[in-house]
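Standup notes
- HV: blocked on the assembly model, inputs below
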Amino acid sequence: MTAALAFDIGLVILIVSMGLWMLMVRDNVVAVIVFVIYGLLMAIAWVRLSAVDVALTEAAIGSGITGMLVLNAAARLRSGEIRWPRPSRALSIAAAAFCAMISAGLAAVVLLPPHPPPSLAPLALEHLDQTGLGNPVAGVLFAYRALDTLLEKVVVLLALIGVWSLAPDRLWGGAPALDAFMPTNDLLVFFARVLPPFGIVFAVYMTWTGASNPGGAFQGGTVLAVMWLLVMMAGVARAPPIGDARLRWLLVAGPALFLVIGFAGFFLAGAFLAYPPDHAKALIVVVEVALAVSIGATLALLAAGPPERMQKQ
Amino acid sequence: MLDAFTVLAVSSGTFFFVAGTVGLLRFPDVPTRLHALTKVDNLGLGLVAIGLLPHAGGLLAALKLVSVWLFALISGAIVTQLIARAVR
């Protein structure tokens, strides 16, 4: 028990110091790298708290895909570097005071919970059987709070439209130029040919097992996204033009199917996003599979960035 | 007997982790630091995985442990080469 405690204390010290380092360091790229390490440490912390679903999401999205997005942004900023003047002392102190207030408020909420702390966990577990799912997290995501999950997927899609709209008019409908970052590299090509078969199997497994074990559409989709990014970066397959109709169908397939099943709930189970009791698990798994594919495509294109070249016809 | 094997293998693995970290911190340039780092992936993680095999509780779990090591090997070897090429 003491070994576990020592591990946890060490972990917390590491996380806090990574957070401080990230804030203090001046170089954007270093800050991003520290952010990725911070995310991985957070994932370990979630495992220590027995929240394996959150840990997987944190490692895959919080650290992995977000790390790549921010690294991309840092690289773009670096090319047109702007030297901001150092803020005045008064402004720094005001900002620090503001942040300290927010931190203190959050700390108060976490450290001084009402007794007993409010929890819906027993209620959620009690009715989990009716959904046919074994993973309570999947139950919350797709049965109890399905509306939140649906909106989440739509938000990711909206973010992609936001990224695309950064393209200049003449490149609208063109393709992201991911492989332009580096010259053709035989090692990367080899990696992009060897890894994806395993990655895709792993993504399918993650999505499938999400119904009864930690995992799910978001984690599986992220693995798919990373595999596709690797293939695009190595130049094994070029990024598709964003005007491609098939690509757009792929992007909306998951949320659209979720929405269709949601509306079907009116007729089959009497409410929006309600599932008929006998088919709940089957429907949820179908939605998860479609979502995993759409999330994979959306996240990969988010990281690929706005279109940068017109496809040669 | 199996416990002794686990303790021995995991301890040796940990030794490589420590040695690799010291190397990462102390070696003068990128290629030598990468050299230190790959020992951690290959031997450190490998020995820890082998040491845990008797306690994996089944063939499937043991295979998972071995594949974790193999994937770390593949990605470690390739990423190291990519970094080394980038700094040359």
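- HV (later): unblocked. The helical segments of chain B are 2-26, 30-52, 59-87. The first helix of chain B runs from residue 2 to 26.
- Next: hand off to the docking folks.
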